[in-house]
Amino acid sequence: MEFQLDSDWRVQPIKGDTGKTYIGYRDEDRVFIKRNTTPMLAALSREGIAPKLVWIKRTGNGDTLTAQEWLDGRILEPEEIPRRNDVVDVLYHLHHSPSLKVMLKKMGGRQVSPQQLLADYEANLPTMIEQNAFIELVYDYLKKNIPTYAKKNYTVVHGDVNHRNWLVCSNYLYLVDWDSVMFADPALDIGTILGNYVPLSSWSKWLVRYGIRPTDENMERIYWYGLMSLLLEIARQYKRDEPHHMNQSILQLKRIFAGS
C-alpha cells in the first residue's frame, strides 16, 4: 500500500488499468477512493453530476486522496445510451454550468482544440494502426476538415464519456472518472456519444433533445468529433491489447464514415 489512512480505515485496491482507485472500509462504511484526481470533484458533487464527495485527505508523500460515497450501481450498457434522456440532461447540465466553468478556470484547466486532439493522436500512434489504410483515410479526412468553433464558447467537457463512465444508481445517473476534464468544444462529448452509440439516422433527433439545431455546420462539427473519438479509442484499445474491442470500434468507424 502506498499510503496510510487513519488506523480505523482499511484500504483495498480496485483492479483496473490506473492503479489509482481503492475501496475504503471503516466499520459498516464504504467509500470509493481515488488518488490524485481532479480537484473539480467537489464542485461536480455539489452539482449532482458526480457521486457525493465524503472527504479529501493529503498523504505523507504529497498525494491527494478523494473519497466519494460508495454506490451499489451498475455501468450503463451501450444500447441504453440512445434511449435515456438523462444522458442528454447530464451532458447539458455539465456543458452549461457557470459555476463549473468558473471552478475549472480557477484551477487553470487545460483548453483542448481539434488541432491538439490530432497532435495527441499523432504523438501516440502505434505503427500497426498507422499502417492501416482505412484508418489513414479517416485520419486524412480529419486533417483536411478541422472544424471551426470560437474558443470563447468552449465549455467544461468530460473528455471520455464512454459507457463505462456512466453509473446508474437507483435509476439516478452519474458521470464518473474525471481525469480528462477540460475546456473544449462541447461537440467533443456529444460526438463521442453519437459516434459510438447512436445510429447516424437518429443524430438529428438526439441533438434536438439536447438543444442544438442540426444544421449542416453543427452536424459536420459533431461528425468530426465522432470520428476523432473513435480513432483515439482504437489506438487505446490496441495499446491495451484488446483486439476484440478494437475490431468492434473499427467496424463502428466504418459505419459512421460510410454514413450508415
Automatic annotation (TrEMBL):
Pfam families attached to this UniProt entry: APH
Signal peptide: none
Single annotated GO MF: transferase activity
Alphabetical UniProt keywords: Transferase
InterPro entries for the chain: Aminoglycoside_PTrfase, CcrZ_PhaseVar_Mediator, Kinase-like_dom_sf
Domain Aminoglycoside phosphotransferase: 40-223
Keyword field contains Transferase: yes
Protein name, entry field: Phosphotransferase
Organism: Enterococcus malodoratus ATCC 43197
Taxonomic placement: Bacteria, Bacillati, Bacillota, Bacilli, Lactobacillales
